[in-house]
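Section 5.1 Outputs to date
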Amino acid sequence: MRAFFEARNVKELCKILRVSESQAAKVGMRRDLVMAIRNRIRRNGWTHLQSAKKANMGRTVITAIMNGDIQSISTDRLIDIAYRLGLTLQLKVA
């Protein structure tokens, strides 16, 4: 029988996976970037190809983001894509 765990947020997920707090912050930031990019694309009704052209990226990169396959996409590249799609980015340090 398999045990299942439920995480309500990134911090809980990283605790379950035994990921350090510093890594958890990075995971959360990347998740926020991906969600913002996805939302921008969906709200505007852009195809993957239209989004890729606006972001000056290959269509496969946008498709990967939309499918949640972002392991090979750097945080810097996600920031570039978000910016090119017209999103405003801010880093808050507490």
